[in-house]
Specification:
Structural class: alpha+beta
Bound molecules: zinc ion
Largest sheet: 3 strands, antiparallel
Strand content: 25-35%
Order of helices and strands: HEEEHEEH
Shape: globular
Length: about 100
């Protein structure tokens, strides 16, 4: 996936009058499983932030190991919340460990 695809899939950019918020997709914990995912705020930019600033903030988020990791099997960048065990993406987990899913 390229940066645009990763952004479309995992990052929500919300322009508010008071700030531009960058939200990252996170997985809900079992007690609140009605909807399996939610977005949590990862960065806040000033309200007048332009496309360039937002692009740079997204680039920084994608490089932040607290939020994104590379799958050790296929090499795809994946949101950490969606990885099965911090080293493998869900697709590879299904492929190599079908019983665990
Ligand atoms: Zn993978």
């Amino acid at each position: 996936m390229n940066q645009q695809e990763l952004t479309d899939k995992y990052i929500n950019i919300i322009r508010k009058p008071t700030a531009v918020e960058l939200l990252i997709m996170d997985r809900r914990k079992p007690p609140e499983l009605k909807c399996p995912f939610k977005f949590i705020q990862a960065r806040k930019l000033p309200p007048g932030a332009g496309d360039r600033e937002i692009f740079e903030a997204v680039t920084a988020l994608l490089a932040d190991r607290r939020f994104f990791r590379y799958c050790t099997m296929c090499g795809e960048l994946c949101a950490l919340a969606w990885m099965a065990n911090k080293t493998m993406c869900p697709d590879c987990t299904k492929k190599y460990f079908p019983i665990r899913m």
